[in-house]
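pls design
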């Protein structure tokens, strides 16, 4: 099962109501949540809901001229908003989504609108919600053609691309497709205007480069028990899809991706046994990484799949404790490409079990 599908299953378990006695026991199970979240979904969910999320009718006036950082909180059905300045982070508020929504990948377009990929549990609506900068209610909600949106990207023409799972919560075993597609919405259209299908695995993350070419990471599980993962590139000129056949040290398990100012492809990868999460930098045309970005000497923990790259900085999770990498993570900025930690929102107490997807509005 892909990490995203596992997360959706965990969120489904977290929706179960918790008895008062169980709520009283929540602090004692924090470590259990950390090491076996899928089996402790209900109690872990209570950890996520322990913080009241601030809602603002409008907060635009207070953030003019500031860089905003967005972080999705899957177990809270919310997106946290903070302002980033020279001294670090300042809390702004949060954007609440529909009950049952599991916000994952985020992006902003040239007009600084925020796009939130929000697969839903049960009978909930699969959607991509769009928020204007400073608004706490969506201005647009894409639903047509979506079966499990997990990530989003917008090109220079305003075209929206959605990495879309065929069966949220299902498996990604080799040969068990269809796995999903990339759904395309031309600027101004709320209905699909194109589709990239026949994917060799479950879609994980999507990005576009300066030429409006589309990149997608995918994952599948062959019968030998290993992980199959790579990157697809869809040319905006030829309209053809090809596999880049990249090779990561220790094996491929690619997640979030971005293209930097030099045209390098930057990929999150779970190295070897998935205990060391790294960012790998691939020069244009290269099959092997030219550099590795590793956090704290031991890599990011298991909740790190997405990041947001902005010039010489990127936003990714930082952890309150290395012993609880899945549950206790918070927003941090790092230097690119060195990976040196610059600012951390807070160390303790953590505002949510973990933050997942990121976007930056300069």
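designed seq:
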């Amino acid at each position: 099962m892909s990490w995203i599908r596992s997360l959706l299953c965990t969120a489904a378990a977290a929706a179960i109501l918790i008895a008062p006695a169980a709520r009283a026991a929540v602090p004692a199970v924090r470590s259990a949540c950390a090491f076996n979240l899928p089996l402790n979904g209900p109690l872990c969910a209570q950890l996520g809901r322990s913080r009241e999320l601030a809602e603002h009718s409008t907060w635009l006036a207070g953030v003019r001229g500031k860089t905003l950082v967005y972080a999705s909180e899957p177990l809270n059905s919310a997106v946290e908003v903070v302002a980033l300045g020279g001294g670090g982070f300042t809390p702004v508020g949060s954007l609440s989504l529909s009950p049952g929504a599991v916000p994952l990948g985020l992006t902003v377009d040239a007009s600084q609108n925020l796009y939130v990929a929000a697969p839903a549990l049960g009978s909930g609506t699969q959607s991509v919600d769009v928020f204007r900068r400073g608004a706490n209610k969506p201005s647009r909600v894409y639903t047509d053609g979506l079966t499990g949106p997990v990530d989003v990207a917008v090109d220079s023409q305003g075209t929206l691309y959605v990495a879309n799972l065929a069966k949220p919560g299902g498996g990604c075993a080799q040969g068990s497709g269809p796995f999903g597609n990339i759904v395309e919405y031309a600027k101004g259209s709320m209905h699909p205007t194109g589709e990239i299908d026949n994917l060799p695995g479950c879609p994980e993350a999507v990005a576009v480069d300066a030429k409006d070419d589309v990149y997608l990471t995918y994952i599948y599980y062959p019968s030998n028990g290993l992980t199959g993962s790579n990157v697809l590139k869809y040319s905006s000129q030829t309209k053809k899809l090809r596999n880049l056949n990249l090779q990561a040290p220790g094996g491929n398990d690619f997640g979030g991706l971005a293209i930097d100012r030099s045209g390098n492809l930057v990929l999150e990868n779970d190295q070897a046994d998935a205990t060391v999460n790294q960012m790998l930098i691939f020069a244009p045309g290269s099959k092997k990484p030219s550099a590795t970005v590793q956090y704290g000497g031991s890599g990011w923990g298991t909740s790190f799949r997405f990041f947001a790259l902005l010039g010489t900085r990127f936003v990714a999770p930082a952890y309150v404790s290395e012993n609880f990498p899945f549950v206790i993570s918070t927003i941090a900025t790092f230097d690119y490409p060195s990976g040196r930690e610059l600012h951390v929102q807070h160390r303790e107490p953590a505002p949510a079990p973990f933050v997942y997807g990121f976007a930056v509005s300069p």
